[in-house]
Amino acid sequence: MYERFRAQPLTTDRWDDFEAVMGPRGACYDCWCTYFRLSPAERKSFAGSEKKDFMHRRVSAGPAPGLIGYLGDRPVGWVQVGPRADVPNWNSPRTVSRPLDEADAEDRTIWAVSCFFIVSKERGKGLSHQMLAAAVVHARAAAARVVDACPIDRTKQSKSVGLYVGSRRIFEAAGFAEVASRKEGRPLMRLVL
């Protein structure tokens, strides 16, 4: 039986679905999708439960920090998408995802797709393409002018957890173009809306 895909903004009424996607360990080693939201010092000092609480407070404060993907009624994926200003560590001068222009980090019309997470049994089925398409629609509806991403060219395994930044291939298929190359295999890509 075919299950229809849909994506919805992560709001407090969908927190249980976010927990279901993240699993008991908060996805990538208790991250709870805080990697680009917290400073390195905070990430190291926070326990997994503190990261989860931090993200819950962020969701409660609004606006939605990303989208939950569903197959039928089952939550199966997550994409973090929003203004660059909402993911300060993504803008750090030491990162490959840093903005082209320093002012872009505070421009609320310049958005970032910074993280993906697909539940393990659904990986390798093209859901990242659908999650990215939904993220672009969401950004456009919120008056974003551009969407940036910093994917990875390839991993050793097609279902690698290292794909949390997305693969270059899905961004190219969605019309993103490389605008900077600061580290081999990690292009900064952009879609003008």
From TrEMBL:
> At the top level of its lineage, which domain of life is listed?
Bacteria
Instruction: List, for all copies, the residue spans of the domain called N-acetyltransferase.
Output: 8-193
Tell me the first and last residues of the signal peptide.
none
The name on file for this protein is N-acetyltransferase domain-containing protein
Q: Which PROSITE patterns match?
A: GNAT (PS51186)
Q: What is the lineage of its organism?
A: Bacteria, Pseudomonadati, Pseudomonadota, Alphaproteobacteria, Hyphomicrobiales
Q: Which GO terms describe its molecular function?
A: acyltransferase activity, transferring groups other than amino-acyl groups
Write out the transmembrane intervals.
none
Per its UniProt record, what Gene3D superfamilies does this chain match? 3.40.630.30
- Stored InterPro entries: Acyl_CoA_acyltransferase (IPR016181), GNAT_dom (IPR000182)
